[in-house]
Amino acid sequence: MNENRPKLFTWIKRIGLAFLALVLIIILLFAGTILFDSLFGSDTADYTNVTYKDAAGQELLGYLAQPEDPGPHPAVLLIHEWWGLNEGMTVLADALAAEGYVVFAPDGYRGNVTAAFPRALWLRLTTPEEQVEADMDSALAYLRGLENVDTQRVASMGFCFGGGHSLQLGLRQSENLALTVIYYGAVVTDPDLLAPLTDGQPVLGIFAEEDNTIFPEEVLEFEAALNSLDIENEITIYPGVGHAFVTEDNYNQPGPAGDAWAQTLIFLEQNLMGAG
Question: Which residues of 190-207 are buried (b: 16+ CB within 10 A; e: fewer)?
Fold first, then answer.
């Protein structure tokens, strides 16, 4: 009998126990972060100024930014990242309102917002997609119902989590939207699924070359699918930047973020503001 075999089994056992302990520690850290942030973190109400109702009459939260004059104005439904409706989205909403748009940023997490990665992941995985979609549909109805909004000139625009939902909203509500803007959100590469956009809804897509979430190869397939349907589009993959490269701190600064924001304003001006 090999005398080293018991020692080998002992070391394998120790390594296995150490690995399990490490996994347990990581789980506890994630759970602890989620619990602490949910109890002591920010609240969506800190960043909202209006309420609206879903189809069942439940009150939901949102942030409304609008020009001072009565309008009617073109409008943008602005959908937040996976962090939830935070201060950053209100800054971008205000920036768009300063350009002449009525901007409504709805809360897709029904009161939850975070700056912590573990809880953002938790919210993203546990918030039902069908609930988010229904809330975005209700938010669009609220925006279109405002007296100072030109219902023929309404766009959806979103970042990351919101970028994917901006596209999906465009597919569901093609008759109620004039264009769709996607900032590094999940794309659709099947032309059959993109067919609703052929109603005449231009698409602006802002993506990142070094994105490890939305890969450039997928973006190119998305662009090819749009082109195959003759859907007007402007898809740009910005070099040298990663996911979520546009923030409330750099959108108006020189560099890729500022360039992407300027591209967005031009696209809105040409296809939304100028359509009035």
Answer: eeeebeebeeebbbbbbb
pTM confidence score: 0.88
Give residues with Cβ within 8 angstroms of 273, minimum separation 6.
Answer: 74, 99, 100, 101, 153
Containing H/E element for 66? none
3-state class of 226 per DSSP? helix
Q: Provide the strand spans (E) within the chain.
A: 50-53, 59-65, 73-79, 102-106, 149-159, 179-183, 203-208, 233-238
| pLDDT at position 273 | 81
3-state secondary structure of 215: coil
Longest dimension (CA), the chain: 91
Residue 78's φ and ψ, nearest 5 degrees, are -105, 115
pLDDT in the model for residue 16: 62
Beta bridge partners, 204, equal 181, 234
Q: Is the pLDDT of residue 11 over 80?
A: no
Nearest one of 208, 202, 186, 204 to 257, comparing CA atoms: 208
Query: What is the rounded CA–CA span in Å between residue 260 and residue 149?
Result: 25
pLDDT digits (tens, 9 = 90+) for 60-76: 999 999 999 988 999 99
Question: Is residue 186 a contact partner of residue 221, using CB atoms and an 8 Å limit?
Answer: no
Alpha helices in 173-241 (DSSP H): 191-194, 216-228
Contact 36, 104 (CB under 8 A): no
Average pLDDT, the chain: 90
Residue in the structure block whose two tokens are 């759970």: 31
Q: Strand locations in 123-202, DSSP E?
A: 149-159, 179-183
> How do residues 216-242 score in pLDDT, each as one tens digit?
999 999 999 999 999 999 999 999 999
